[in-house]
Amino acid sequence: MIPDKEFFEFNREKDSRINKIIKNEHLLIGSMVYETWLGADIYFERLPNKYWNFTFYRRLRGTPLEIMMLLIALVSIKRRTAIWYNQPKKPFKIEIKQFLLELNVKGESNIETAEDVLYTIKDSIDYGFETQYGLEKNYLTIGEIKELTKYYQQASISLAMAFQFLASMAAMRRLGYDVTEFQNLLVSKKKYDMLQIVDAIELSLDSNNIDFEEVKKIFKIMYPNIDKIQKGAFEIADIQQNTMTESQTFHIALSFAGEDRDVAQKIAKSLVEGGYDVFYDDFEKADLWGKDLYVHLNDLYSKRSKFCLMIISKSYANKLWTNHERRAAQAKAFRQNEEYILPLRLDDTEIPGINETIGYVDYNKTSFPELISLLKQKINK
């Protein structure tokens, strides 16, 4: 049953699998809304009437990543309402308490941190079961799971996201899918402890059981020195590939003329699906509403982006706003004295300040997958 008309229309327009999961798993789904700023990509909560409401981070709107996250969230709701695998024999709170007594963990801060980490480990094994279930039921394709896994790897700014990355690897490997690219990444970063964690999660999936012994094993892999129980002690930051400085908000800002919006939109959506933060005006409508755009865009193009993709065309040369964006971007390029503006030429139009000697990419002579690959390589550098 889908009581909310807005949610029903969203399902029909976006992906038939959404209705399929809701029907097959007898889920009670309520409303769906977007927020300009959200502490997560997707948030869902159960109401007293047992229906689930969804909130999405606005920048994901209209992207395939949004659909993938909704599909896996629906599987997660299935798990929360009708779990299909075995849980620890004792209540998890009791297991944790006994384990921390065994380890002789002392100090309120250490105890709280250890409890948070143990719950994160259990949540990650749950997520592994959800990923496996989604694949087995054909609710998500292996390509989609791999894209989500890449996203969690690239956006691993928290322990929970890093563990989603590891749990996804375990689920795919458990079902016989190739995860070589992810394993090679961890080997190249010398993250052998993370490979051990993937093994432990896979053992739980194989036994169809969350055994607290596996949770304990993972915790001990993370913290071989029990006197140093800190969230930061288990380093995850360098499994990211798309880093930004503290002052930056976006990996890349798109500067383009309205006539070239189709090109810009295609690029923006593809990068967002890969887990990159992209400034593309349609993704930021609510944030831009009411702002002094002259000041705001100057700040954005001159300070808050790692790179500026300048989509050059005859239309670009003749617009007041693109000239404003260009000047702001050129000011940053001049200050930092290294590549910042990435010219993407749709034609041979000359743009003031963009010398012929500056390396550029010709959109008409470059395949789209190659273009996206080049952009990712530049951002990840």
Q: What would you say this structure looks like, in words?
A:
- Helix 1 (5-14) packs across helix 2 (16-24), helix 5 runs parallel beside helix 7 (159-174) and helix 13 runs parallel beside helix 15 (320-336).
- With 381 residues, this protein is α/β, with parallel strands linked by helices.
- It is built from 16 helices and 8 strands.
- Strand 4 (250-255), helix 11 and strand 5 form a beta-alpha-beta unit.
- The N and C termini lie far apart (48 Å).
- Helix content is 54%, strand content 11%.
- The protein folds into 3 domains: 5-81; 92-239, no CATH class; 250-380, Toll/interleukin-1 receptor homology (TIR) domain (Rossmann fold, 3-Layer(aba) Sandwich), CATH 3.40.50.
- The strands form 2 sheets. The protein has a 5-stranded parallel β-sheet with strand order 5-4-6-7-8, with helices on both faces. Strands 1-3-2 form a 3-stranded mixed β-sheet.
- The protein has helices at residues 5-14, 16-24, 64-81, 92-103, 108-136, 142-154, 159-174, 180-188, 192-207, 212-222, 261-273, 285-288, 293-303, 314-317, 320-336, 368-380; strands spanning 29-35, 42-46, 52-57, 250-255, 278-279, 305-312, 341-345, 361-362.
Topology:
Blueprint: H1 5-14, H2 16-24, E1 29-35, E2 42-46, E3 52-57, H3 64-81, H4 92-103, H5 108-136, H6 142-154, H7 159-174, H8 180-188, H9 192-207, H10 212-222, E4 250-255, H11 261-273, E5 278-279, H12 285-288, H13 293-303, E6 305-312, H14 314-317, H15 320-336, E7 341-345, E8 361-362, H16 368-380
Parallel strand pairs: 1-3, 4-5, 4-6, 6-7, 7-8
Antiparallel strand pairs: 2-3
Helix pairs in contact: 1-2, 2-3, 3-5, 5-7, 5-9, 5-10, 6-7, 7-9, 9-10, 13-15
